[in-house]
Amino acid sequence: MSTALSVEKLGKNAGLIINESQGNAPPQPCAPMGVAPINMTQAMKSSTKVLMLTNMVGPDEVDDELEPEIREEMAKYGQVASVVIHKLEGVSDDVAVRIFVEFTNVAQAIKAFVVMNGRFFGGRSVAASFYSVDDFNNKEYGR
User: Fold this and answer.
1) 79-108 in b/e burial notation, b at 16+ Cβ within 10 A?
2) Are strands 124-125 and 80-87 parallel, antiparallel or unpaired?
3) Which of 29, 62, 63, 122 is most exposed by smallest CB count within 10 Å?
4) For this UniProt entry, which residues form the secretion signal (predicted)?
5) How far is it, in rounded angstroms, from Cα 88 to Cα 10?
6) Would you identify the CATH topology of the domain 40-137?
7) How crowded is residue 109: how many other Cβ atoms within 10 Å of its Cβ?
8) 53-94: per-residue pLDDT in tens?
């Protein structure tokens, strides 16, 4: 870096770094990639012990090794009761595979949600959301 950066104060605890060569040009928005992460505040209002992950893999990436891999990864956040991988037909690739992870309690599912929502996995931005325990127990995975 050969020039100093300037900071434009936006609020009490917020600022914007400005590169002198760009002047005061507004920051360029990022292009959307894949599925947008779920809004954390809205999701927490409907939290359950069942987490649904989408855009983690495409339909052609589902194999016998996926379920144990998911179980191992999710065990970092709590005790996993079950993992179900469900494919939907006639939908876009980013939502065609739903991965359901049932934890033994809601707190563990929330911990996994916070880490997984928006995380990149194999070049994909994962979207996490909570799923109805009743629908999960009734094997209604397409809702």
Assistant:
1) ebeebbbeeeeeeeebebbbbbbbbeebeb
2) unpaired
3) 29
4) none
5) 45
6) Alpha-Beta Plaits (3.30.70)
7) 25
8) 999 999 999 999 999 999 999 999 999 999 999 999 999 999
